[in-house]
Amino acid sequence: MIVRPALACAVLLLAALACAADPADHDATAKHSFDDVEHWASVFDDPGRDAWQKPSVVIEKLGLRPGMRVADLGAGTGYFSRGLSEAVAPGGTVFAVDTEPKLVAYLRDRAERDKTDNVVPVLASPDDPRLPDKGVDVVLIVDTYHHLDDRLTYLRRLGHVLAPGGRVAVIDWEKRETPVGPELAHRLARETVVSEMEAAGYRFLGEPGTLPYQYFLVFVLSAKPA
Ligand SMILES: C[S@@+](CC[C@H](N)C(=O)[O-])C[C@H]1O[C@@H](n2cnc3c(N)ncnc32)[C@H](O)[C@@H]1O
Fold first, then answer.
1. Is 122 in the pocket of ligand 1 (CB under 6 A)?
2. In 182-199, which positions are buried (b, 16+ CB within 10 angstroms) versus exposed (e)?
3. Is the CB of 131 within 6 Å of ligand 1?
4. I need a labelling partner for 30 at 20 to 30 A (CA). Which of 43, 149, 190, 219 fits?
């Protein structure tokens, strides 16, 4: 078949346009308020959650060591706070980051109650985690990735927060019906997360643990952050 150069260029241009990411594709699949702290505490800290969330396995697989700085991005009520705090003590810091002021106050109260002095609650902006540049070794994002808007821009910004060799762990819901978890339309396929993270400059390192209803993906910055 003979393809004329002008036609070939038009085809290539159309293909390029089709591949260009629409920023809306990277917007949150679930937008709701988390200001009813009492309600969300009953959900996030449901005693039955440990059976499928396996927090100690998750924390063990993160490979944290004393002295490390870990950020729990979208920390909610601090379900992971105490375990993370113990994993990086002594000398380490847990940034418990959330955008909901009432949850950040709850995180502070919980840290005071639990005497986890190395937990630092952070009130983030929706488009900025408000963490120090190169100040974090591991970012843990549990059930929060699908709440982030304009993820490519957000993830590139997050790259600036990582110390050299720093990692990002994303745990979120498999895109299939599960006995617990958000509705299907709010979930993102694991391939979507991997391709977005790669587009934002991260390299997929692997899946260190298996959870029954969620994927657990770990990434490292592959290049100088954009
Ligand atoms: C489904 S909850 C998960 C809470 C916690 N990670 C857990 O597993 O129990 C999602 C949390 O992400 C927070 N959130 C939403 N958008 C955020 C953003 N752009 N930055 C930080 N936190 C965010 C919400 O306020 C909420 O507390």
1. no
2. beeebbbebebbbebbee
3. no
4. 219
Q: Which two tokens stand for residue 186?
A: 């709010």
Give the position of tokens 């000398």: 91
Q: Tell me, in angstroms, the distance from the centre of ligand 1 to residue 137's CA.
A: 20
- Virtual torsion, Cα 170, 149, 181, 104, nearest 10 deg: 80
How many angstroms separate the CA atoms of 133 and 138, rounded? 13
Residue reference for tokens 């375990």:
83
pTM greater than 0.70 (yes/no): yes
Among candidate residues 120, 118, 117, 125, the one with its CA nearest the CA of residue 107: 120
* pLDDT tens-digit series, residues 176-205: 999 999 999 999 999 999 999 999 999 999
Q: Position of tokens 């009953």?
A: 42
Strand runs (DSSP E) across the chain, as ranges? 69-73, 93-98, 119-123, 136-142, 162-173, 202-206, 214-221
Closest ligand 1 atom, CA of 149?
A: 19
